Amino acid sequence: MTQDTTPAESTAPLPVPVGHTALQKRVVRVLITGQILGGIGMGATLSLGALLAAQLSGSSAWSGMAATMSTLGAAIVAIPLARLAQARGRRVSLATGSLIAGTGAILAILSVSVDIFLLLLLALMLLGAGSATNLQARFAATDLATSRFRARDLSVVVWSTTIGAVLGPNLFGPGEALGAALGLPAMTGAFAFSLAATVAAAFVYALGLRPDPLLTALAARTTSAGIRRASGGLAILRSNAAARYAVLVIALSHATMVALMSMAPVHLRDHGATLTIVGLTISLHVAGMYAFSPVFGALSDRLGRLPVILGGQLLLLVALTVAWLSDGSQSTMTVSLIFLGLGWSASVVAGSALVSEAVDIEDRSSLQGFSDLSMNAAGALGGAIAGPILALAGYSALGLCAMALVAVVVVWSIKRMRPAATTSR
């Protein structure tokens, strides 16, 4: 039977036992610490990947492959990490993902040393595991959360990435100084910060998530409802319309963000921006992605998921319109990227809450893993297509093309709101 539920009617887990309230608070604190460190690991290399790809390949048309490989790597490990979480818990899964990202940082430095473009692509793919880990951490915040505060707890963990991710791009200068002191190639010093941060995050997750939130939630559910076999993510999408909608919102919103953001460093450099200016602009974009996520989480709990998603799409449309009309100036680019980050945040926070609510706890990890796979695969495709569009038609055309993705989400969101409005009468 097809399960076609609205968000308000979606399956909810059993109430969290009172004794787990204190554990949930501690879990959120540990996740916040890990996200700060993971954000440094991600932010320190966010822009350098595109610049190094252009340098090693000899063409700016290949710069989009940096975001493509990073998001592809995140997509590849999303389901394995989700399965590892289901079997061994969030603690093992998150620590493993962080260590894989640290390995990518080492290979990135090596790739520039030996001037091998393919090795850089492999490094960026492994670094993408850090993004997958950060994404899974937001879902870890919902394992023991009550429905009343689920979006809030998720959004606070997303917000914590702001600290590291905004700090990361501004480590380019210190990274170059550190790299020179260590004898590293130019533009690779920031990867040393990335390596230290991801290893530290692995230790935080391994030591701090005891007892494990997901295993604790599964044990509580099993005691009350009995054991039942979890479905695969794709099987869930076939039978659950709410899950299909939530996954699509996240995937298309992420593809829109990656397509514009991945080309921004190259576009800025082509218009004479310094490496410091590029880092500052990207850090403001990342601030838009994460800094206001608690606001969107609170609004999502208070107003509902659909209104916040529609608001996020409106913010994305503003960003794309500014990019379309952009004259290439730093100020115009900064405005566009800030709105791009805000739109991504609203859409992903509300969409992620829907993903967590669409199924019971036994199936939640499978759906979350498939959602992250879809999200990163869409981002990889967006980054891959963005490079040729930039080279052939310019940044303005890229903004115009991305509007089609926003239109799909808006139309589906409006359709999902109509049955609810009819029912309320």
Automatic annotation (TrEMBL):
The keyword Transmembrane helix belongs to this UniProt entry's keyword annotation: yes
Domain Major facilitator superfamily (MFS) profile intervals: 27-419
Chief site of localization: membrane
Keywords: Membrane, Transmembrane, Transmembrane helix
SUPFAM superfamilies from the UniProt entry: MFS general substrate transporter
Top-level division of the source organism's lineage: Bacteria
TM annotation in the entry: 30-54, 60-80, 92-110, 116-135, 156-172, 184-207, 245-266, 272-292, 304-325, 337-361, 373-391, 397-414
Subcellular location: Cell membrane
InterPro entries: MFS, MFS_dom, MFS_trans_sf
Membrane disposition: Multi-pass membrane protein
Protein's recorded name: MFS transporter
